[in-house]
Each structure stands twice: as C-alpha cells, then as structure tokens.
Design a protein that fits this description.
Layout (H helix, E strand, L loop, with lengths): L1 H14 L3 H21 L2 H6 L3 H4 L4 H15 L2 E14 L2 E12 L2 E12 L2 E10 L1 H5 L1
Antiparallel strand pairs: 1-2, 2-3, 3-4
C-alpha cells in the first residue's frame, strides 16, 4: 500500500510539471517583456512582477534600470533561448531562461526567472549583460 501512495504522489508531482508548456509560458513572458521595453512601458513591466521581485527592487529603481537598458541598447530586435531550467521546489514552480538578445546597439545576454502557475509566467528575476551598457 505504501508503494502505491508513493507512486501516486510521484506521478502527481510529474504531471504538474510540463517543460514544454512551462518554457512556452516563459517565452511568452520574455516576448511581453521585450514588447513593453521597446514601447517604454517600464512601469507595466514592474507592475507585472511577482512579490519576490518587488521585495528586492523598488519601482523607481527598476524603471530607472530599464530606462538605461533601453537608451544604451536601443530597441530589441530579436533573440533566442540558449538554455533553460524548470524547477519545482517547496517555494514554488520556477523557470529560468537564458536568452541571447540582439538590440539595435548590440548583443546582450539576458537571464529571466519566472514563477509559473498553469500557463501564466510572472517575472521574479531579470539580469542583463552587454558591452553597450558599459561602453555605450
């Protein structure tokens, strides 16, 4: 009987995690991020972040960072995922996406962390590295 319950619990845990659907939700989140960045909707990006993000960054601070990213890199042109991690923990379900992005003024490496719930992905972490941010 104990084996049955353990098998049932393991099956339920695996069923709640679908890497294809989870990465699709994260990719949709990245697309929305870049659309809002190009449109200068920095407040909208911050307003859509999760509580984990808001616990470490204020709206004023993050929107200032996004303004610098947008002014030094220019508009987002295109990009592609170069790696991902789908992780379910006791703190929640998270997808981390590493992204090679091309902006008007040069390339950038971006790292997005999303909390995933169903088909919804909420941004909880963002990091960007680009020479143009330092040299531009």
């Amino acid at each position: 009987m104990k084996k049955y319950w353990m098998t049932l619990m393991a099956s339920a845990a695996l069923a709640s995690c679908s890497p294809g659907a989870d990465t699709k939700a994260a990719e949709n989140g990245i697309s929305s991020f870049h659309s809002n960045l190009n449109a200068g909707n920095f407040d909208k990006i911050y307003d859509g972040t999760g509580p984990e993000f808001k616990a470490v960054s204020t709206k004023d601070k993050f929107t200032q960072i996004l303004k610098v990213v947008h002014s030094k890199l220019g508009g987002f042109k295109n990009g592609k995922s170069v790696g991902w991690n789908d992780n379910v923990t006791t703190n929640g379900h998270f997808v981390t996406m590493n992204y090679d992005a091309n902006y008007e003024k040069g390339p950038a490496s971006e790292n997005f962390v999303f909390r995933v719930s169903g088909s919804e992905a909420t941004l909880v972490g963002y990091h960007v590295n680009a020479d143009a941010l330092l040299l531009g």
